[in-house]
Write a structure and sequence with these properties.
Mean pLDDT: 83
Shape: globular
Largest sheet: none
Number of helices: 18
Radius of gyration: 22 Å
Strand content: under 5%
Amino acid sequence: MALNYIWIGFFLIAFVVALAKVLFLGDTTVFNAIVQSTFDSAETAFKLSIGLTGVLTLWLGIMKVGENGGVINALSRLLSPVFCRLFPDIPKGHPVNGSIFMNLSANMLGLDNAATPLGLKAMKELQELNKDKDTASNPMIMFLVLNTSGLTIIPISIMMYRSQMGAAQPTDVFVPILIATFCSTLAGLIAVSVYQRINLLNRSIIIFLGIVSLFIAGIMYLFAGLDKDTMNTYSTLIANIILFTIIIIFIVSAMIKKINVYESFIEGAKDGFNTAIKIIPYLVAILVAVGVFRASGAMDYIIDGIAAFVSMLGVNSDFVPALPTALMKPLSGSGARGLMVEAMEHYGADSFVGHTVSIMQGATDTTLYILAVYFGSVGIRKTRHALPCGLIADFTGIVAAIVISYFFFH
């Protein structure tokens, strides 16, 4: 329901803003830009979906090999003490726990292409447990909010963009992003737990969060002493070694159990193709709405209003030029990426704004995109508290990114 109102709101606000620009500013090109954006966004959505087809086919095939080989069940049993607290409605030891863990791990390593099909696999399994097929279940919402909070340990793509934009030290945002994304994930976890009345003051959860915190601290310590070239090399190498090792473990496990690996892969791959086709309408819907909103100039007016309000309060407003990236991120990953690059081009990659947009880009994920694609893949229409909890995580990540930017780079 929330997505319905937001989708309608994008179009209505865009129309009102565009009409005002025509009548009061004499802008005769705004409606041309809006209509053109609908075609461009629809084409982009289709290309994204088709581009996902190969990746989905590959990774859902590999996941099927891991499932038949028993690796997913083994992960489920290992994570059962924690996941049975965070996902109390999932039966103990259910294979979906392993799928959820694989997806979250891929996200943490910045492996977006691998994370999406793994996430869609988990959603399909969660839907099988869901009694009300058009309404999001509690485990679905917890899973997606953990996704939208964007916990990333190795932000490879952001460091790559900073390098391309001429940053003297592309990796100097590594630690700030790690801190900001941890804050957003923790906020999302707490928000969902409050809605679903999950007690986080549990021994298993506290130990798990403690281990994760120590792991992040260890990563920070390990990379803090490396130069930029070495950090880029090893962060990419570690992520890809882990990824390919997982594939090998799946294959070897299936071989040990005398499973036909090739046939298992084909069985899972067929699901990947069908899923990619199914999400096209949802992608078109959300990307066209965002494109219309942006083309109308409504986003620019929001930013200008925030800048005026911040200045009126007497607060340092150096961060305001970075806000378009923050506001676009929940709506469109590619849009936020474009705004990040634009900001670095205009202000410089090593400027305060250049650093801030980089941290904002890494602090959270594309909430509306994720909800549209993941819920759309299993036919969920009623999203319940998924959107507000996701936006709480986004807001926390943005605030953390701003504060951390002032601390490290101002």
